[in-house]
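Sorry to interrupt, but I need a hand with the structure work. Go ahead and set the record down below:
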Amino acid sequence: MLGFTPVQIYQVFLVLCLPVCLWVAISDLKTMKIPNRSVLALIAIFVFAGLLVMPLEAWLWRWANFAVVLAIGFVLNAVANVGAGDAKFSAAAALFVTASHAGFVLPLFAAFLLAAFAAHRLLRAVPAIVRATPDWVSWKRKDFPMGLALVGTFVTYLAIRAIPPFDAWVQSLLVSMAT
């Protein structure tokens, strides 16, 4: 580890993860699938960059997040029709989340899920947008590309942690929620 501060760690993660997140969002809109390669790319970012910027003990503990979220995702895939790609992406993204922030990330995801669903349904009703993206499968399907909400949640979390005033606000919010 090279002595990075938590803010610097998340700045590195944000810069490295943004292109993968854009790939996931576009792929999910276009094909209703999250490529396994994108999940592996997130894991690779965490493995290599994480080892360089994080304390080893914290890096190792994040793998517990991965295992728990992956197990929950597989159960949701079996019983609630949550996509396997969504489950795998969520587990890979969980590597970047501090376990103590679950109480913040889950409501953030709920907000993004509602907003992404509403935006997707609204935009697919606009003929000009559908004509501009005629090969997007998500416009025609009843189900919803949940990768949009997952990416929005993940990028927002990384940005909050990477921008000191927002990170301080979230930290104080978590402390006040705990008391």
Notes: The longest helix spans residues 6-31.
